[in-house]
């Protein structure tokens, strides 16, 4: 049994409300940072960050603009590799394996750690092809029933009912909120373990944003969600724990979300949350 299955089996569901009881579960670390530094040329964007991110929970990352939230997220699935001047020092591990070890294939890593961006970015292709894309480039299209996999991903992204009769139409013809759910379907189709989301609702209207928030609550049943948001109410609503980064790329506090918002240790966190700066 994989650790994923083991952890799944510990999920208890409150039948009456349908809400999960997140207190009664183990919290195995899936992503672990130790003294992580990230530089762009001479500029340091992440400074000595250490953090254990637990499986099957929502971890929010908040902090003022430019404090390194996106950089941290991109260091988890090595999207920073694509930026020439970017340099990473320290440890960033996925299930105990340093993702910067020489024998790690970044493509294989990104199969396990998918990503959703701020602006919905469907490909100029059909809805079906958008979702099938990941499976096709991984050469898995022959191994799985593609129709079935596409339907499962669209259901998982709470989009199936809205698009099942028009799978051949362009992903770009959907509304913004539907496009973002399509991008989530595309991210989950290859069955990753972790989904990174960088301000996934900030380009959406409140109704569409709220659908994504509901969806995130469902996604953590199967995946680990790490979400950057500049919306503190959103972090408070949807996350289990919250990391607060401040200018200079320092992780100032990381704790249960209720603690961060109601009783933070660090005065700077309190000031940030109460809107004194940022
Ligand atoms: N591609 C890049 N090249 C050079 N500097 C960058 C790049 N991306 C981000 N930075 C710098 O790194 C710091 C952190 O940026 P970022 O991670 O985007 O912050 P946030 O997501 O919290 O707004 C900023 O000072 C930013 O200017
Ligand atoms: Mg950012």
Automatic annotation (TrEMBL):
GO terms for molecular function: ATP binding; ATP hydrolysis activity; phosphate transmembrane transporter activity. Pfam families: ABC_tran (PF00005). Residues 1-26 are annotated as: Disordered. PROSITE patterns: ABC_TRANSPORTER_1, ABC_TRANSPORTER_2. Keywords: ATP-binding, Cell membrane, Membrane, Nucleotide-binding, Transport. GO terms for biological process: phosphate ion transmembrane transport. The keyword Protease does not apply. Residues 31-273 form the ABC transporter domain. Residues 8-18 have a biased composition (Polar residues). It comes from the Archaea. PANTHER family: ABC TRANSPORTER I FAMILY MEMBER 17. This is Phosphate ABC transporter ATP-binding protein.
